[in-house]
Write a structure and sequence with these properties.
heterodimer; A: alpha/beta; Rossmann fold; 2 domains; 6-stranded parallel beta sheet; 11 helices; B: mainly alpha; two-stranded antiparallel ribbon; 2 strands; about 70% helix; extended
């Protein structure tokens, strides 16, 4: 067996170990590589910056704990920005398994920014139906969510004063890990109730959402951990996303190198096989 | 730091390490974590659904606020349960018909408008722009999605990919060149999707390792180190026991 063949039959656990080390070492000893902010992330930031104090900002945390490493830092950065701007924040989720986590992140960031539940922000929780919930909120927010997550009647909350439906919301951002998310908010929400919509998503679904960005159906897109890091840079509050960028770059470099090496070894094997066949004939 | 936070850190660390042991080989610790995940997820979903739907959206508005109109959707929903009674199963079709009818009625026009009409509108863009003085201008920047050069790239991409999926005509001669161009565009799209997927999976690994590093700190009782040692010892014991029970070759 030639060297190239041995390399192509290498124990996959060695590759796992290599990727693990490429992730772990930069996390323990960060280098601090530069992070360039992309226009799609800047658009979200600029829109929130342009909102006057007291505007209504709805953050729909449409993900479950499986997507926490990518979307949780996005939620933290967006909430810090919204609270710093003194926006009235409405939190909710269309994903049942993410309810507890969504409630925790909204209340934790609010506590860090000194905001009060019911007065400065509200977490509505989860309601079944996906698109139907959005339609219901577009007609009457209080019928869709008669009480908030803490079982307080939503109609009595000062933070929702003057808000009757989605038409009264200034900006909606959906942080999505799947099909019930940004697209649902566009199809059943923005298209009908005419609020501005932005999005944050996992890396897996990001390529599918770029057509919505280009056509103006969403005004900005925060993609994956990279997008979260860019947003952390924009608000000047570096967190877990920025800390993970060195590791992300190192693993990407390792994977590119492995792909190139695999192709080189494959070509070497093919060439030697062709030569052997030619010699035989 | 509260006891719940420390306990949560130990549980999260233990389950993360148990799941990661699968990278070495399948083992009982991985199975334990896998089954716990499924059980906890289903239990959580049942409790939250009961609390939100049965209590907050049905019981409280009906009993406390006297909104008896909710009996109509409740009745339609209950019809679905007749699936479990063979003689009355036909009644569930009423509920399904309602769900399919309302769902289609709501979704079809909105989806056509959002995904087809809006996207066609965005695809059909002028290849040459007209300036305010009436002269034709052409922008070359590939980095600007709205440039005229990108409009041409988009046009070529859409037409060639559509042609590639047009199977009524044999892809020979000039048609072959167009179809080949379509394949190139598709490959670029698949490459971008794969790249993003790799980035997403690496982000998940970064997330778990970040937590493991955090939980290795003294304030969490060095959970990562203790549990790593326990996991390795348990794996060695399992491995030794399995070797002892394996039939001789």
């Amino acid at each position: 067996m030639s060297f190239a063949e041995r390399m192509l039959h290498i124990d996959r656990r060695i590759i796992f170990l290599l990727i693990g080390l490429c992730t772990l070492i930069p996390l323990l000893y960060p280098v601090g590589l530069a992070i360039k902010v992309s226009p799609e992330v800047k658009s979200v930031y600029d829109y929130i910056e342009s909102l006057p104090e007291g505007s209504v900002f709805l953050l729909s945390l449409d993900f479950d704990p499986a997507s926490k490493p990518e979307l949780y830092p996005q939620a933290v950065a967006l909430l810090h920005h919204a609270f710093k701007k003194n926006l009235r924040v409405i939190g909710m989720t269309l994903w049942l398994p993410g309810t507890g986590m969504a409630s925790e992140v909204v209340s934790r960031v609010a506590r860090e920014e000194g905001k009060v539940s019911g007065k400065d922000y509200v977490f509505l929780g989860w309601s079944p139906g996906g698109g139907s919930v959005i339609i219901n909120m577009g007609q009457d927010l209080y019928k869709a969510f008669p009480t908030d997550y803490n079982n307080q009647p939503t109609a009595e909350l000062p933070v929702l004063k003057g808000v009757q439906s989605l038409r009264d919301v200034n900006y909606v951002i959906s942080l999505a890990a799947g099909s019930t998310g940004i697209e649902t908010w566009y199809v059943f929400g923005k298209d009908k109730y005419k609020f501005e919509l932005g999005g944050g998503c996992t890396g897996v679904i990001a390529p599918g959402l770029y057509p919505l960005l280009r056509s103006g159906q969403i005004n900005g897109l925060i993609g994956g951990l990279r997008g979260a890091a860019e947003y952390e840079v924009l608000i000047g509050k570096k967190g877990k996303a920025v800390a993970g960028m060195d590791a992300q770059s190192a693993t990407h470099f390792a994977i590119i190198l492995l792909v190139i090496l695999c192709n080189v070894f494959y070509l070497l094997i093919r060439t030697s096989k062709n030569r052997a066949e030619q010699n035989r004939s | 730091m509260s006891f719940e936070v420390i306990l949560g850190a130990w549980v999260a660390t233990g389950l993360t390490l148990f799941i990661l042991t699968f990278l070495y080989q399948d083992n009982p610790l991985f199975k334990l974590a896998e089954h716990l995940y499924v059980g906890v997820s289903v239990g959580y979903a049942i409790v939250k659904t009961y609390d939100t739907v049965a209590v907050r959206l049905i019981y409280e508005p009906m009993i406390k606020q006297g909104d008896w109109s909710l009996l109509i959707p409740l009745g339609i929903g209950t019809l679905m349960l007749t699936r479990y009674v063979p003689k009355a199963a036909w009644m569930s079709r009423i509920a399904f018909a309602f769900v399919v009818g309302v769902g289609s009625g709501l979704a079809i026009p909105r989806v056509i408008s959002s995904y087809i009409l809006k996207q066609i509108e965005d695809t059909v863009r002028p290849l040459v722009a007209l300036a305010t003085d009436g002269n034709a201008t052409f922008t070359y920047s590939l980095l600007n999605p709205a440039s005229n050069l990108n409009a041409i790239v988009l046009l070529i991409g859409v037409v060639s990919v559509l042609f590639y999926f047009f199977f009524s005509v044999e892809h020979t001669g000039p048609g072959k060149a167009v179809a080949r161009t379509g394949i190139i565009f598709l490959m670029i799209a698949f490459g971008a999707a794969f790249g993003y997927t790799v980035m997403a999976r690496m982000s998940l690994l970064i997330g778990r390792l970040t937590d493991l590093i955090e939980y290795a700190q003294p304030q969490y009782g060095r959970a990562t180190w203790w549990l790593l040692v326990i996991t390795i010892i348990t794996l060695i014991v399992f491995h030794a026991r399995r070797k002892g029970t394996e039939p001789p070759q």
